[in-house]
Design brief:
It contains five helices and five strands. It has helices spanning 13-25, 38-45, 74-82, 101-109, 122-139; strands spanning 6-9, 32-35, 62-65, 92-96, 114-117. It has a five-stranded parallel beta sheet with strand order 2-1-3-4-5. The two termini are 17 Å apart. The mean pLDDT is 91.
Amino acid sequence: MADKYILLIEDNPDDEALTLRALKKNNIQNNVEVCRDGVDALDFLFRRGAHEQRDIASFPHLILLDLKLPKLDGLEVLRAIRNHQSTRLLPVVILTTSNEDKDVVGSYESGANSYIRKPVDFEQFMELVRQLGRYWLVMNESPVGR
């Protein structure tokens, strides 16, 4: 697995494909692991179930987390990430279509590093992904892997 990989937690196949396409078009070469529901995301992070063989020392350098997920919603996933010693410092960016105040406030109260509403326009989304990749994967000093 690449040194700096991204965990995309997204249940919408169209949004997943759009995000992966935008990453590729912006020459963000990092591997991307995809989880499509909250339970699978926590299983991945905590090496349970289908993910129990995942390298114990390998954590994503960036988590892109949708809020509206099946099984466990994004805020529940975020709280679980923040409540576990091995994952509490991972950068988590909420990437969602919701612009409800309760979601913004709840995300920050639960420990999100950033809250970004997905633009509807493809070109705006491309620029958003370019900036996300540049900041979180190039410029940001992460505690992951230290």
